[in-house]
From TrEMBL, chain A:
This is RING-type domain-containing protein. SMART domains: RING (SM00184). It comes from Endocarpon pusillum. InterPro entries: MAT1_centre (IPR015877), Znf_RING (IPR001841), Znf_RING/FYVE/PHD (IPR013083), Znf_RING_CS (IPR017907). The keyword Coiled coil applies. GO terms for cellular component: transcription factor TFIIH holo complex. One of its GO terms (biological process) is DNA repair. Keywords: Coiled coil, Metal-binding, Zinc, Zinc-finger. It comes from the Eukaryota. Residues 142-190 form a coiled coil. Residues 19-61 form the RING-type domain.
TrEMBL record, chain B:
It is found in: Nucleus. It catalyses: ATP + H2O = ADP + phosphate + H(+). It is an enzyme of class 5 (isomerase). This is DNA 5'-3' helicase. CDD domains: SF2_C_XPD. Residues 7-295 form the Helicase ATP-binding domain. Its cofactor is [4Fe-4S] cluster. Residues 724-824 are annotated as: Disordered. Its main location: nucleus.
Length: 332, 824
């Protein structure tokens, strides 16, 4: 089963390309463009594509097996070729399809060996399709796997998209920052005191699945892929809390809209204070909080370890800071 | 003569020693004892190599560890010179000691220079010799022969197997010539003898590339132990060597060849499958198990090695999707096709490796992981297939190396695709440059592996630039002045022509008729007064051609012809060597000649114009690099972002090191004399970036000159140097010679220093007081330098000032103390 377009492994150079249907060549017509059929990978010029698809004809290349079977290509099945070598073009298309189905991720596997075995297995399947050995069997395996693992395929595809998007945004960010730095370096040529914008080089771990429990390797529902881990989708990331979970309830007082104060009356009526954005409400709140702070704290309890953990750590730090001699000693 | 440095007896093969040689040895010894890296600059022609060798050999023989010396030089002739020097030293040692020490010193160079095989050695190209040699000496050839198959092999190589593996050549020092002769006599291969004896040698002398180029280093220099002493001589260009060794250029043609290579591999795999399936299966099994190629015996004939890979990667198993040979070939083909599609783009692209990989993955589903293993997998496959005609696979290997590097390093590399050769070109001829921007990547393994690395050259100023660029720390950086009996060279900076017009090769005024005329005039005047040879350096070929044609138009050349012959360097190596030969003949005949050459060309690097071959050197224009080159721009940006080296700093550093290299060409010893003219306005401010021995010899009176003044000074200088050296001067300078010491002189100096140290007590450094001038020199330089030099000096403070000056160190201590208390 040899396909005529692929006999030489690659097509002739673009210098004198001739359309096999209308015999038009790039030598005579500079802007002649070619498209390929994604089924049989035969290559004809755009004009012929339009003609053929509008009149519902088969692939016009002599000896095309798809045409022999009576397959009529649609307009959407013709596209511009990416690779010079049509065999590679086809391989990549097949690969794309298989990879969309067998899209397991490395962290899903129990061991590196299992992951490598999976990679080889996938490669094997792809090569089967490319070299047309055992096509039927391979296709069957694939569709079986697809049915059995629909959920995981979907989840992994989403993860993949996510990672790609994140990578993209990081790249653009880095590019922008590099640009900024370049401009800054040019502007402040003499004294470059510019602040280095350290690129956000945090690893993209977000979205990776978590391992639930290690029961040893398992295989997927269809039984094709072995050596998997049991994973659970990650819990959504919590909103950042600067107080590390410390309660901010006001147990001992309620905040009123206004308090009479001799000191503040003048300031309250002064437009300059207001214009500066001074918030009296916040000032009251803070004053009251300070006045009542410590009312609910029992140091003995905290010492025995019954207090909230966040405050205990805080207390240690504060205690350490209150001993000036010790810290300075450590420096030497 | 024999003398002691502290408790180390040093045998020096000459009756007199230069003061700077002694200082150099002292500092070397300190570095070796402290166990760290150092940068040393010693004037050219003051016997750097011999002092280095005699100190290190003395050190080796005196201490029980017997640390091995790896001496790296640049060219074949330098290697041969060093070997001869070492041989003479060892002969002197055995005469003095009365015993022949158990000592081995060998040099290594390419197969082409060391081949004895009657037909192979006649090949002209090095690559062909390598390939043919491999096809005769590979491990599987031997196996086949043992099995009784009829294969051709090299008798010289086979004979090695009959000898004891640790005693292929007798102890002693062999020069390359000597090794060839020994090989011929005993019918054994000199190349493999040297390589196999490497681990038994006390001194190894070879080219930089054997250590720096990761593709070679992996094979040749793997077994060297950690406590080796590594010396890079003539290292002023070491950063460029590092960068070149990791940069790859791909063209459409090389990709086509790579595709052909991949197809060949595929065919070979098919063949092997039908004939010898077992071998492929074995390889596959090994890869599955994650075993490294265990057969170390074969490592020697492995034709490809891996580029610098992190160690953790080397321990990992090859990813599953390229484990099978046929999968790997398909993988390679896909990658090459992808590169081909990239080549079709008609505008310039600059891309970082991560974004390249992302695009690659989008289009071909090639992931980073298998890509990283590309080079290693290919090596393994080639070994399994037992390929002999390896040069056919060279382009494929290049692609694989490129893949591995791109997937391994996120930063420090850049892909630049240039579709057109020049701005004006209309026919695309795309080149994909994969350029390394970070010189420290290639040299990092060297610094990490060896405890003492010594970087030395005649012109390596400013010293602090190298540790910065190559990312290492030194225990010592030192530049030595040149001690001279009398003033034997005259460096001058000429900034104006005789009509007081400023002269410069700056872009705006370089083709200005007045500037060109003034340059011509300068050359003409010096042609009149200089005896024998004149060497002139231009910043580029382009400028040289332009200026020569303008001189011709203005009739200046006709005037010059009356006095000297004119010869020109061209990019063609053969033409240049012919010009050089003619130049030498002209100099020998007494009339003298002028050689016009380029500051970055072949002549400026490694050709010496000693004595009458060069009495005047003129640098016309500061040799700045062509700043519009995209690769240079990218590198400048990288240096700025990563090592905080400003663009202008790097460019002027680079220009000055080349200028210094040019100036150093004419002065090759203490009995030599010459005039050095720097003719550009821009040199005036860069004076402090010259090597110390040149800068020290240049007084303020010799800067900012006009042509007439320079000619007047040169005349006076030549007249005074023509007088015989008065005998009395030696006696007048207090008994000991100023430029060289006999043993008595040396001992008296040592005693003097020791007694001073006794008085000084707390500083503990003998040279501190002895060289007060040095400190001043450095400080002065700081003061007069323009902004950035000060900054560099601040950067070097922790190392050099700290090492040099006990007092400063103490002061700093107080400051810190004070600060602490205030904070408390």
């Amino acid at each position: 089963m040899v396909m005529s377009g692929m006999q030489n492994g690659h097509i002739a150079s673009e210098a004198d390309d001739i359309c096999p249907v209308c015999k038009n060549s790039t030598y005579l017509q500079k802007n002649l463009r070619f498209k390929i059929n994604t089924k049989c990978y035969h290559r004809i010029c755009e004009g012929c594509v339009d003609r053929i698809t509008s009149t519902q004809k088969k692939c016009p290349i002599a000896g095309c097996t798809f045409a022999a079977r009576g397959v009529i290509p649609r307009r959407g099945e013709y596209r511009v070729q990416t690779f010079e070598d049509l065999a590679i073009e086809r391989e990549v298309d097949i690969r794309k399809r298989v990879m969309a189905i067998l899209n397991r991720r490395e962290e899903e596997f129990y061991s590196k060996r299992a992951w490598d075995d999976f990679l080889e297995q996938r490669e094997e399947l792809i090569m089967n399709l490319v070299l047309k050995t055992d096509v039927k069997k391979t296709e069957a395996t694939l569709s079986k796997y697809k049915e059995a693992n629909a959920d995981s395929i979907k989840a992994n595809a989403a993860l993949e998209r996510n990672a790609a998007a994140q990578f993209e945004s990081r790249q653009t960010l880095q590019k922008e920052q590099a640009n900024l730095r370049r401009q800054a370096a040019q502007q402040t040529y003499e004294d470059d005191r510019f602040h280095t914008l350290t690129a956000g080089s945090r690893d993209v771990k977000a979205g990776a699945m978590e391992v639930i429990h290690d029961d040893g390797p398992v295989s997927d529902p269809s039984g094709l892929v072995k050596g998997l881990r049991k994973l659970r989708p990650p819990s959504p990331e919590k909103v950042y809390d600067p107080f590390m979970g410390m309660a901010t309830t006001r147990d001992y007082y309620g905040l009123q809209a206004d308090y009479p104060s001799m000191r503040l009356t003048k300031a309250k009526n002064d437009t300059r204070t207001r214009a500066g954005g001074f918030d009296f409400q916040a000032y009251y709140d803070e004053s009251l909080l300070r006045a009542f702070a410590g009312l609910g704290c029992f140091i003995d309890k905290e010492k025995t370890g019954q207090g909230p953990p966040a405050t205990r750590e805080l207390a240690t730090v504060v205690a350490a800071e209150s001993l000036p001699g010790r810290i300075n000693d450590e420096v030497f | 003569m024999k003398f002691y440095i502290d408790d180390l007896p040093v045998l020096f093969p000459y009756p007199r020693i230069y003061p700077e040689q002694y200082d150099y040895m002292c500092d070397l010894k300190k570095t070796l004892e402290a166990g760290g890296h150092c940068v040393l600059e010693m004037p050219s022609g003051t016997g750097k190599t011999v002092s280095l060798l005699s100190l290190i050999v003395a050190y080796q023989q005196h201490y029980p560890e017997k640390r091995k010396l790896i001496y790296c030089s640049r060219t074949m002739s330098e290697i041969e010179k060093a070997l001869a020097e070492l041989k003479a030293l060892m002969k002197y040692r055995s005469e003095q000691l009365g015993i022949v020490e158990e000592f081995r010193g060998l040099g290594l160079t390419s197969r082409k220079n060391l081949c004895l095989h009657p037909s192979v050695k006649r090949e002209k190209s090095g690559a062909v010799v390598d390939a043919r040699c491999r096809s005769l000496t590979a491990g599987f050839i031997k196996e086949k022969k043992e099995r009784g198959e009829d294969v051709e092999s090299c008798i010289y190589h086979d004979n090695l197997d009959l000898l004891e593996p640790h005693n292929l050549v007798p102890p002693g020092v062999f020069t390359l010539d000597g090794l060839l002769r020994y090989g011929e006599q005993h019918k054994q291969c000199p190349y493999f003898s040297a390589r196999r004896m490497m681990s038994f040698c006390n001194v190894i002398i070879y080219s930089y590339h054997y250590l720096l180029d990761p593709k070679i280093a992996e094979r040749v220099s793997k077994e060297l132990s950690k406590d080796c002493i590594v010396v890079f001589d003539e290292a002023h260009n070491i950063d460029n060597v590092c960068i070149e060794s990791l940069s790859i250029d791909l063209t459409e043609d090389s990709l086509r060849k790579a595709t052909r290579g991949a197809h060949n591999l595929e065919r070979k795999i098919e063949e092997m499958k039908s004939s010898d399936e077992e071998k492929l299966q074995n390889e596959y099994q090994k890869l599955v198990e994650g075993l490294r190629q265990a057969d170390e015996a074969r490592a020697e004939d492995a034709f490809m090695a891996n580029p610098a890979l992190p160690d953790d990667l080397l321990k990992e198993a090859v990813p599953g999707n390229i484990r099978r040979a046929e999968h790997f070939v398909a993988f390679l083909k896909r990658f090459i096709e992808y590169l081909k599609t990239r080549m079709k783009v008609l505008y310039v692209i600059q891309e970082t490796p991560p974004s390249f990989l992302a695009h690659l993955k989008d289009l071909t589903f090639i992931e980073r992981k298998p890509l990283r293993f590309c080079a290693e997998r290919l090596t393994s496959l080639v070994r399994t297939l037992e390929l002999t005609n390896i040069e056919d696979y060279q382009p494929l290997q290049e692609v694989a190396t490129f893949a591995t590097l791109a997937a391994t390093y996120d930063t420090g590399f850049l892909l630049i695709l240039e579709p057109y050769e020049s701005e004006q070109a209309t026919v695309p001829n795309p080149i994909l440059h994969f350029t390394c921007l970070d010189a420290s990547i290639a040299i990092k393994p060297v610094f990490e592996r060896f405890s003492s690395v010594i970087i030395t050259s005649g012109t390596i100023s400013p010293l602090e630039m190298y540790p910065k660029m190559l990312n290492f720390s030194t225990v010592l950086q030192e530049s030595y002045p040149m001690s001279l009996e009398r003033r034997s060279f005259l460096p001058m900076i000429v900034t104006r022509g005789s009509d007081q017009q400023t002269i410069s090769s700056g872009f705006q005024i370089r083709s200005d008729l007045g500037v060109v005329r003034n340059y011509g005039n300068l050359l003409f005047e010096f042609a009149k007064i200089t005896p024998d040879g004149i060497v002139v350096f231009f910043p580029s070929y382009l400028y040289m051609e332009q200026i020569i044609s303008m001189w011709q138009g203005a009739g200046i050349l006709d005037q010059i012809w009356n006095y000297k012959l004119l010869l020109v360097e061209t990019p063609d190596a053969q033409e240049t060597s012919l010009a050089l030969e003619t130049y030498r003949t002209a100099c020998d005949s007494g009339k003298g000649a002028i050689l016009l050459c380029v500051a970055r060309g072949k002549v400026s690097e490694g050709i010496d114009f000693d004595h009458h071959f060069g009495r005047t050197v003129i640098c016309i224009g500061a040799p700045f690099q062509y700043t519009e080159s995209r690769i240079l721009k990218a590198r400048l940006e990288f240096l700025r972002e990563t090592y905080r080296i400003k663009e202008t700093d790097f460019l002027s550093f680079d220009a000055m090191r080349h200028a210094a290299q040019c100036l150093g060409r004419v002065l090759r010893g203490k009995d030599d004399y010459g005039i050095m003219v720097l003719a550009d306005r821009r040199f005036q401010r860069k004076r402090n970036q010259l090597p110390r021995w040149i800068a020290d010899a240049m007084t303020d009176a010799e800067t900012g000159l006009s042509t007439d003044m320079a000619v007047g000074m040169a005349k006076k200088f030549l007249r005074s140097i023509a007088q015989p050296l008065p005998k009395t001067s030696r006696e007048m300078s207090g008994g000991k010679g100023k430029d060289s010491w006999s043993l008595q002189d040396l001992e008296s100096v040592q005693a003097e220093r020791r007694s001073r140290r006794g008085e000084g007590g707390h500083t503990g450094r003998d040279e501190d007081e002895d060289r007060p001038h040095d400190m001043q020199g450095v400080n002065n330089k700081n003061g007069t330098g323009n902004g950035h030099v000060g900054e560099i000096d601040r950067a070097m403070e922790p190392t050099s000032n700290y090492m040099r000056n006990g007092l400063d160190e103490f002061d700093e201590g107080i400051d810190d103390d004070e600060l602490m208390r205030m904070e408390a």
